[in-house]
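pasting histidine kinase for the record, 461 residues
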Amino acid sequence: MKAAPSKSLFKRALFSFYAVLLAAWLGMLASEVHDVKVVQARNGQAWNQVWAEHVRLQARLWAQEPQKFQEVLAELERLRAQEWRQMGYEPPIILLQVWRGGELLHRFASPEIARRPPPDEQRHAPDAAWLYVELSEPSQALLVRRWQEVPGDWHFGLNGLAYYTRPLFYSVPLLMLLAWLLLRRGFRPLRRIGPQIANRSPQDLRALPPSAYVELAPVVEGVNSLLAQLRERQQREREFLLDAAHELKTPMAVIRLNAEALAGSRDPQEADAARQRLDEGVQRATHTVHQLLSLSRSSADIELERRELDLVALTRDRIVLASQLALKRRIDIELKAPEALPLCLHRESMASLIDNLLDNAIKYSPAQSQIMVSLSQDDRAVSLSVCDQGPGIPEPLREKVFERFYRLPDQDQAGSGLGLAIVERAAARHGARVMLAAGAQGQGLCATLRMPRAATDLERT
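structre below
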């Protein structure tokens, strides 16, 4: 059973949106905290000075009533703490002293001062941990000393955290719902493609309608390209079956007629003649089947597995196999080639290509003639030529002979008309092309295969 897909592009896009939203909020929070810290660091001393001024003012008013003065300072401290908490911060720790005539009139320390080392009350100057301000009122012999912790170590209070987190908690559910709706709507064209393909029958290879969306266009184009290849392959298979049936019909009819003649013949000579014609029909049918199979393999869409081969050695081996047929007609096959020519090739298709070129050359060459096979190379390509001394092919028909089952008019030699079609397809699979030209002194035919070096270099392996 096929496992269901475990990943979702929709969820990926949705969570990516959530991650961006969270990152943006954290970035904003970090920026706000940084700005607040900078403002606090810049204005800490000014705040300390302002609150010291408040204390001095109250001391001038209530210095003669110590009890009332204590109550006023306590209320002042309460208001100071309240103001900081309303802004979302814990109030900074302070130490306050009010002196009159050299006598300590009032001393106040924040309860939180125990959390950190207190200031040196005998050292009347700022240090790394504490800001310090000193104000005097000579007319009443008053002296106000105030220490405040250096900004930078303060923490958000609950109000401050709520100020920054409340918008997130309120907005995230709404934004998540909105993102879900928008992404679902955005993915709708993609979801429509699946049913368009799944609901088709195996025979329906029509192209999908073009997509108006830039993101989906490559997907639709890729599917349409695959469908086009399937249509082409289906058409080739259909044509192959029709051509095979047509080409096998004649030799099979010959076999049947000669088999009937052999079965009903009482004359030994007639029986021998029927037996010979039957054997020729079987050979023709066998040759046609082999050619059809070679053509089918050379037209297949599978990727060829190439490996290092010596084209000279391969050509020499194919000449040895063809020499038996050449000897029957007293045809000499000569090879002109370097000692070795290592290339990146597919052995079966290249062997089929050479066999068909040699077979055609032997078949159409007159007896006691010569076939010249030559291999050469230059900086751009490797060439394989097979030249015979036969009747040749008229120039207007040299392109047409590459069509399947095409045979030249008034041709007496038996054949299926598939040889050069196989050669052309095998050459195409190696990135090569086949050219036909007149032989030496305009006599015969010279078939030349030219393969670019870029398609056959050993680096491809």
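The two ends are 37 Å apart (CA to CA).
Residues 251 and 283 are 9 Å apart (CA to CA).
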